[in-house]
């Protein structure tokens, strides 16, 4: 077996190009200082040797780590929510293509009975200048993360619009959840359903309220009844199943639109308990298009998380580039992935 060739060094590039090490360094960091023919010769050598500049040394020179910080939220038990996993993967890929890497961190351990520190982990990274900027994924009204980072003048972009904060100036990217739920409701009506129930989250979630607004708007436009056809519960499979059972008993809906795949999975369980088949007997639509939805044949609203990540990274690059202005906000449209849980064929 051939011995793998060791990574090329700056000295290797200098020797192949017939220039000094400083010239190679200038070609990488200050190419305008070199004559075009010299720069071309060094670039050819870099490409031939597949040379990668030392990132640590570059950090010392430019004060840029090319690292983006993303704080992970605690794992949620008994849910089907895998959207954050998909988003993280998309962000890592988009960042890599732009020359950045994602640094994942947590807010630290929380003792029983104590509330988590909303800025836990951020200050440590800011003091150490370990990252160039942050991606924030929770943008509820008064969120201390966005407020704290803005006060510290730390660069950040957000996945999620700044709810009820029109004066906010940080870049953000969001998905129109209300439009996605409205499309789901219209799809169920096209399948012949008139009593379409909504199972959402408990009051306080602006994202949940926005999704409910999409259902209510569509039902009103379609001239369908809404009274007695909604429930607000915690985001768990058990709660979704109980809400569906209660609505089936009291209001006899023929279809359900849910704020999450987790709640929709609970609905599927309630239907199974009653010998009802999803799609043929009762239509069911979730939100997030999780792997669970794909495996179970659950129709679901899919967020374009790969596109979200690309826009966020573009905003980060603009934010960190002197003289450039990032877009203040980008709203993307979701799609409806139709499967057997909502079709009567």
Could you give a short description of this structure?
The protein has a six-stranded parallel beta sheet, sandwiched between helices. The protein has 13 helices and twelve strands. The mean pLDDT is 86.
- Broad shape: elongated
Mean pLDDT value: 86
The total of beta strands comes to 12
What is the CA-based Rg, rounded? 25 Å
What distance lies between the first and last C-alpha atoms, to the nearest angstrom? 58 Å
Q: What is the makeup of the main sheet?
A: 6 strands, parallel
The fraction of residues assigned to DSSP E strands is: 15-25%
Low-confidence stretches: none
Q: Which structural class is indicated by helix and strand composition?
A: alpha/beta
Count helical runs: 13
- In N-to-C order, the SSE pattern is HHHHEHEHEHEEHEHEHEHEHEHEE
How are strands sequenced across the largest beta sheet? 2-1-3-4-5-11
**Share in helix:** 40-55%
């Amino acid at each position: 077996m051939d011995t793998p060739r060791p990574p090329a060094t700056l000295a290797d590039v200098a020797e192949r190009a017939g220039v000094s090490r400083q010239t190679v360094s200038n070609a990488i960091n200050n190419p305008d200082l070199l004559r075009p023919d010299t720069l071309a010769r060094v670039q050819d050598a870099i490409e031939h040797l597949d040379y990668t500049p030392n990132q640590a040394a570059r950090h010392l020179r430019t004060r840029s780590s090319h690292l983006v910080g993303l704080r992970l939220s605690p794992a949620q038990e008994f849910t089907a929510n895998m959207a954050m996993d998909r988003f993280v993967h998309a962000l890592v890929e988009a960042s890599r293509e732009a020359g950045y890497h994602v640094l994942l961190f947590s807010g630290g351990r929380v003792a029983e009975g104590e509330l988590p520190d909303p800025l836990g982990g951020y200050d440590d990274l800011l003091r150490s200048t370990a990252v160039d900027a942050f991606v924030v994924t929770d943008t509820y009204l008064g969120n201390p993360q966005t407020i704290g980072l803005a006060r510290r003048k730390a660069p950040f972009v957000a996945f999620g619009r700044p709810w009820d904060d029109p004066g906010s100036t940080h870049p953000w990217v969001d998905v129109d959840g209300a439009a996605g739920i409205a499309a789901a409701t219209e799809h169920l009506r096209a399948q012949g359903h008139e009593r379409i129930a909504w199972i959402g989250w408990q009051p306080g979630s602006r994202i949940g309220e926005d999704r409910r607004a999409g259902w209510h708007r569509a039902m009103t436009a379609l001239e369908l009844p809404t009274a007695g056809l909604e429930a607000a519960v915690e985001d768990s499979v058990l709660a979704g199943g109980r809400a569906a059972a209660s609505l089936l008993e009291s209001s006899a809906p023929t279809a359900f639109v849910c704020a999450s795949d987790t709640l929709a999975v609970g609905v599927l369980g309630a239907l199974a308990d009653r010998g009802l088949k999803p799609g043929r007997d009762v239509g069911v639509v979730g939100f997030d298009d999780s792997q669970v939805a794909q495996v179970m044949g659950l129709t679901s609203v899919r967020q374009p998380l790969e596109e979200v990540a690309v826009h966020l990274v573009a905003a980060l690059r603009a934010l960190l580039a002197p003289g450039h202005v990032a877009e203040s906000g980008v709203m993307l449209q979701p799609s409806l992935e139709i499967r057997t849980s909502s079709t009567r064929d």
